Fold:
Amino acid sequence: MWVEVLALPAGVAEGRLLNDPVHVRGIRKGDTVRDPTTSLGDWIYNDGDSRRGGFTEAVLRKLNP
Structure:
């Protein structure tokens, strides 16, 4: 599931769901979701001289400079 993280209060990620889940029922694209930050996942890789992915890292850097 892809979530646009809007806030990270006290170890909880809050955001808007960007796609319809395949395996999770009861929520749909556009819904507000909350989950512990420990369950966050991401992907990142190097493409020559550029990094790709790392979206969670970027959000955490903005919130904790």
